[in-house]
Automatic annotation (TrEMBL):
It comes from the Eukaryota. Keywords: Disulfide bond. InterPro entries: C-type_lectin-like, C-type_lectin-like/link_sf, C-type_lectin/snaclec_domain, C-type_lectin_CS, CTDL_fold. Residues 35-139 form the C-type lectin domain. This is C-type lectin lectoxin-Lio2-like. It holds the Pfam family Lectin_C. It comes from Alligator sinensis. SMART domains: CLECT.
Length: 152
């Protein structure tokens, strides 16, 4: 079942989270771009999840912990132009920040996507190479009266 919570980005419309989804394939994980594409296929404006406040951080962290407690998870924050300007895949404003200490560090000049790490309870962001394989979490718009996640 999806978990709904209000967000300013959707003008107060409820959103739902899908459980962290593996990509189709043996590895059960995907790089950032394939993860975003898999979210988009879910419909209803789905994207990799944007985490826009400390309260949303708590909701997302709790949700991931209950569905995928042992691995790192993509969220929808990235630097598509490789100029250290971070953007959300759903177009939300980038005002809230929850970076881990010393992040973002762009280690080896190749970290342009963001994960939530299981060490630390999925509450802090880490920039990492977009080609790394991760589970991912999608967020989508709920329609009135709909409480089931898409594709389930």
């Amino acid at each position: 079942m999806g978990f709904a919570f209000p967000t300013k980005a959707a003008a107060g419309a409820p959103l739902a989270l899908l459980p962290p989804l593996p990509a189709l394939g043996a590895a059960d994980t995907a790089g950032f771009l394939l993860s975003q594409a898999a979210c988009r296929k879910q419909g209803r404006g789905a994207h990799l999840a944007s985490v826009l406040s400390s309260s949303a951080t708590e909701v997302v962290a709790g949700y991931i912990s209950s569905h995928y407690p042992d691995g790192n998870v993509w969220i929808g924050l990235h630097d598509p132009r490789h100029n250290r300007v971070w953007t959300w895949t759903d177009g939300s404003s980038f005002t809230y920040r929850a970076w881990r200490f010393w992040e973002p560090n762009n280690w080896m000049w190749r970290e342009y996507c963001v994960e939530l790490r299981h060490f630390g309870g999925f509450k802090k962001w880490n920039d990492i190479d977009c080609k790394r394989q991760r589970a991912f979490i999608c967020k989508y718009h709920l329609k009135a009266g709909v409480h089931q996640p898409l594709g389930r």
